[in-house]
Write a structure and sequence with these properties.
single chain, alpha/beta, Aspartate Aminotransferase, domain 1, Aspartate Aminotransferase, domain 2, seven-stranded mixed sheet, 14 helices, 38% helix, binds 4'-deoxy-4'-aminopyridoxal-5'-phosphate, pyridoxal phosphate, transferase, Acetylornithine aminotransferase
Length: 408
């Protein structure tokens, strides 16, 4: 290891660039499989010029697809005017994005937004908010993913992510997801907050029963605890509603956002509902240098206005239903079905074939995520078309066949 001083300038083959990667980055996410260099809609190209249908979408980030002209124009204009200012000051874009987020969230008067730079940071904000109740107890779900910073990691349930970094912040209880009685037993007058995802994305698109979210609302209200809904993956149209919680009709105390909000630029948010919750964090108690800078705010505004202008919420519902129907119509013996909501989906397999399928898919020009040994997550750009989804569904039988071939 160590930096390569004589790396060829402008070298572009996949193999060469991945070799340079190996000598210059910490491969915390695993070694990348491709070097990508350009995109258009739901398609991306690698540095060898090979094209892929992107059903990963930056992990549910590229809401408008790649290079959407509205996003390109908004970000280009903003960067030419002013990219960043400190939060001693504000910008028109920052204020307008906060107003729009509150509006689409249906947040009551007295609500507020704190902009973060990632999902994990939005969750950190929610944890700090919850501490201001004077309590420390946190309740999260088994299978939950809330991020990798040390506070958020305490809410994330997977042992492989947590154990190398123990001890994490204390007083966190994990309860089985979608189990009202387990939640009832865990929520007490020591609970600062219950934190739940409307769909557990990293667990493989497992959907919360709306009645479960309503029970969580009742239990937290009765115990004087906050209900925080982590919308980092589900928010900004991914489920076909602006936010995943909206289907259940509840009003949460706070939601966390990131991913789709910036359409590819790094912006997250903590949204507090109503004056009592918003008032928990007072001046000087939290902050971040980049928080909601003009550049990411301009990106966020163009994402929200484009989702609206292009009717993408309805489109997401239709594409999600189409995918479910098309996969069911295959009647494939190795496929159990499609789980999830909107365009946060997993093709569930009857055996542990997902990484073999993902490799075969990449060869065949499709990017998909083997989120679990038996589940392939599909979180394409919200603009993905029926025809594009059909290309993948039509290829699935041969991808499965390749995955089942004995390795030589
Ligand atoms: N919460 C949820 C529900 C997520 O899906 C993720 C990311 N997969 C995070 C938090 C963390 O977001 P980030 O990677 O931007 O820190």
């Amino acid at each position: 290891r160590g930096p390569r001083t004589n790396a060829p300038e402008g070298s572009s083959s996949q193999a060469e660039l991945l070799d340079r990667y190996a000598h210059s980055l910490i491969p915390v996410f695993g070694t990348p499989q491709l070097v990508l260099e350009r995109g258009d809609g739901a398609w991306v190209w690698d540095t060898d010029g090979k094209r892929y249908l992107d059903l990963v979408g930056g992990i549910a980030v590229n809401a408008l697809g790649h290079n959407h002209p509205a996003l390109v124009a908004a970000v280009s204009k903003q960067v030419a005017e002013m990219a960043h200012i400190s939060n001693f000051y504000t910008s028109r874009a920052q204020i307008e994005l906060a107003e729009r987020v509150l509006e689409i969230a249906g947040a009551p008067a007295g609500s507020g937004v704190f902009f973060a730079n990632s999902g994990a940071e939005a969750v950190e904000g929610a944890i700090k908010l919850s501490r201001r109740t004077g309590r420390t107890g946190l309740v999260a779900a088994e299978g939950a993913f809330h991020g990798r910073t040390t506070g958020a990691l305490a809410l994330t349930s997977k042992a492989a992510y947590r154990d190398p970094f123990a001890p994490l912040i204390p007083d966190v209880t994990h309860v089985p997801y979608n189990d009202n009685e387990a939640l009832r037993a865990a929520v007490t007058t020591e609970t600062a907050a219950v934190v739940l995802e409307p769909v557990q994305g990293e667990a493989g698109a497992i959907v919360a029963d709306p009645a479960y979210l309503r029970a969580a609302r009742e239990l937290t209200t009765a115990a004087g605890a906050l209900l925080v809904i982590d919308e980092v993956q589900t928010g900004i149209g991914r489920t076909g509603d602006w936010f995943g919680f909206q289907e259940s009709g509840i009003v949460p105390d706070a939601i966390t956002l990131a991913k789709g909000l910036g359409g590819g630029l790094p912006v997250g948010a903590l949204v507090t509902f109503g004056p009592d919750v918003t008032g928990l964090l007072t001046a000087g108690q939290h902050g971040s240098t980049f928080s909601g800078n003009p550049l990411v705010a301009a990106a966020g505004l163009s994402v929200l206005s484009t989702i609206e202008a292009e009717g993408l919420l309805d489109h997401v519902v239709q594409m999600g239903e189409h995918l479910v129907g098309a996969v069911a119509a295959l009647g494939h013996p190795d496929i159990e079905g499609v789980r999830g909501r909107g365009l946060l989906r997993a093709v569930v397999l009857r055996s542990e074939l997902s990484s073999g399928i993902a490799s075969a898919a990449r060869e065949a020009g499709f990017l998909v995520n083997p989120v679990a040994p038996d589940a392939i997550r599909l979180v394409p750009p919200l603009v993905v078309t029926r025809e594009e989804l059909d290309l993948f569904v039509a290829a699935l039988p041969s991808l499965i066949a390749t995955a089942k071939e004995p390795t030589p």
